[in-house]
Amino acid sequence: MGSSSRSPNDEAGDKNDANVNSESKINSLMKVVNAKNEKIVKEKDTEIERLTKLLVEKAPEPPSPKSELKIFKMIRNKLMKKG
Fold it and tell me: In what helix (H) or strand (E) does residue 15 lie, and over which residues does it extend?
């Protein structure tokens, strides 16, 4: 019978290389996903700021900056729950 010229250490090294490559690919994909998520959050925050300003403009009396922040957070929480 033919014996393999590869040692068990060679095979273990190949598995390590494959694991490193897989980790590298996963890390690359995670960076892309995180970048897209950051972009989505920034876009939503911009939209929320626009809606907050619109609400403030339509208010009978101008709210305090603290109230504006509460409005912003309330809108943001509702939108983030919807996805």
Answer: helix 8-58
* Inside any domain, residue 45: yes
Tokens at 32, concatenated: 């892309």
pTM: 0.52
- 52 CB burial (10 A radius; 0-12, 13-18, 19+): buried
CA 68 from chain centre, in angstroms, equals 26
Identify the pLDDT of residue 6. Answer: 58
Tokens 């393999």 correspond to what residue? 4
Q: Which residues contact 71 (CB under 8 A, 6 or more apart)?
A: 52, 55, 56, 63
* Residues of the chain where predicted confidence (pLDDT) is lower than 50: 1
Q: Which domain holds residue 16?
A: 8-82
